[in-house]
Design a protein that fits this description.
Elements: H1 5-8, H2 11-52, E1 62-66, H3 74-78, H4 104-111, E2 131-133, H5 146-150, H6 158-178, H7 182-187, H8 193-196, E3 198-202, H9 205-214, H10 217-240, E4 245-249, H11 258-263, H12 278-301, E5 306-310, H13 312-321, E6 349-352, E7 355-358, H14 378-388, E8 394-395
Helix pairs in contact: 4-14, 9-10, 10-12, 13-14
Length: about 400
């Protein structure tokens, strides 16, 4: 614009032009600023929403349901105690965990500032003030029948675990109604804690494993919708019992377990780039796809529920596919026990052709992803937990410390 224009022009026309120019410039500033702010909001919307929920939820308790991936002593208490070297790496003694140390559920408790969960079935030295663990090794989502039980799976399937929780809650509330005492208040959750607690589920692997033993892969796939339906009914039942915050793991790459590679040795056309049984992993992926779809549906059906779906498959598969880069040895190796020609569980003894075989541990468990051919090592569980607890593998992408909030709500 000519800076001398105002000097040369006089009268009403000049005044009008200057007014128009001033208004136009003001409009330019306002519109430009609005566009700039809108672009900024567009670029950072997801981050803003995540920041809105970055605060700690202060869960007063955790109630866990699952199988050996999260069993902190249930099966060991119900049957015979797991022997050393199980537990030795972290606890210095057997801890009821099918691992040399901590499980992912232990790292969840640590992240939330809570003590490790006691197994509901463990009557020795237990404390349920901050929750309880109903998981037992060998558990399935499907109710156990004679066929499944004879295959060696746990009688404490998910429906039984729900019955146990329902009784635990009812009797705990009864105790508080009968009269408070220092023992009750220090040993059991407060009645209000049940609706504020985090409910974690990590189960389904044994349903697939049992299917591979007794059915064709096509039959296992055909059975998946029914299994997912039963899992969804479990979530609904917990919701009816007052649960609101759920942290739900999908199932891991079962075809990558050393057990699977040894007992179902993949032919070249059925081996993926990481040396895993490709078809078994494809079944697991389909199971997970259906599970995620159902969790999304449940989120719409249960208006007050906060359901977080956790892609633990991706975390575990990344660890296996990048094992050497991450400091681990052969991803299909294992540290404790014997598989293959003769089976001796970790820490056990057996006579094989007149010779006593001991399921001893390797010298450095931290080098192994698999502890005993089926379960993950302490070092692997720690790495996996670090991948999932920050929310990077969750849907919605909320860290576990914010899993009491719905994305988009304060």
């Amino acid at each position: 614009m000519d800076v001398n224009l105002g000097r040369r022009w006089r009268g009403p026309i000049a005044m009008a032009l200057r007014s128009v120019e001033a208004v136009a410039f003001l409009v330019f500033l306002v519109v430009g600023f609005s566009i700039f702010m809108a672009m900024g909001r567009s670029k950072t919307l997801n981050q803003i929403e995540l920041n809105n929920h970055s605060g700690h939820c202060n869960f007063p308790a955790i109630f866990n349901f699952g199988d050996s991936n999260s069993d902190t002593g249930g099966k060991s208490a119900a049957y015979d105690r797991l022997p050393s070297p199980n537990g030795d790496t972290f606890f210095g003694k057997p801890s009821g965990r099918f691992c040399d140390g901590q499980l992912v559920i232990d790292f969840i408790a640590e992240k939330l500032g809570l003590p490790y969960l006691s197994g509901y079935l463990d009557s020795i030295g237990t404390n349920f003030r901050y929750g309880a663990n109903f998981a037992t090794a060998g558990s399935t989502i499907q109710p156990v029948d004679a066929k499944i039980f004879e295959m060696g799976f746990s009688p404490f399937s998910l429906d039984i675990q729900l019955f146990q929780f329902e009784q635990f809650k009812a009797r705990t509330i009864e105790l508080y109604k009968e009269g408070r005492s220092s023992y009750i208040e220090s040993s059991f959750p407060r009645p209000v804690d049940f609706s504020k607690a985090l409910y974690t589920l990590d189960i389904g692997q044994n349903d697939l494993h049992g299917g591979f033993v007794s059915m064709t892969e096509k039959q296992v796939l055909a059975s998946t919708p029914n299994i997912i339906n039963q899992s969804a009914e479990a979530v609904k039942k917990l919701y009816q019992l007052g649960a609101r915050s759920f942290w739900i793991h999908n199932t891991g790459p079962i075809g990558c377990l050393p057990f699977a590679v040894i007992y179902y040795p993949p032919k070249p056309e059925n081996m993926d780039q990481s040396g895993c049984v490709k078809s078994h992993n494809e079944v697991a992926k389909e199971f997970n796809r259906q599970l995620q779809e159902r969790v999304t549906q449940l989120g719409a059906q249960l208006p007050d529920a906060i359901l977080t779906y956790v892609d633990i498959f991706s975390a575990k598969y990344t660890l296996i596919s990048e094992a050497k880069k991450l400091g681990f040895a052969n991803p299909h190796g294992y540290c404790c026990g014997h598989l293959g020609d003769y089976n001796v569980d970790c820490g056990r003894k057996a006579m094989v052709n007149g010779t006593e075989i001991i399921g001893a541990s390797c010298s450095n468990p931290s080098e192994y992803i698999s502890w005993d051919g089926v379960h993950y090592s302490h070092a692997a569980n720690k790495w996996i937990a670090n991948q999932i607890l920050n929310g990077n593998l969750s849907n919605p992408p909320i860290p576990i410390t914010g899993a009491c909030h719905k994305l988009g709500h304060s």
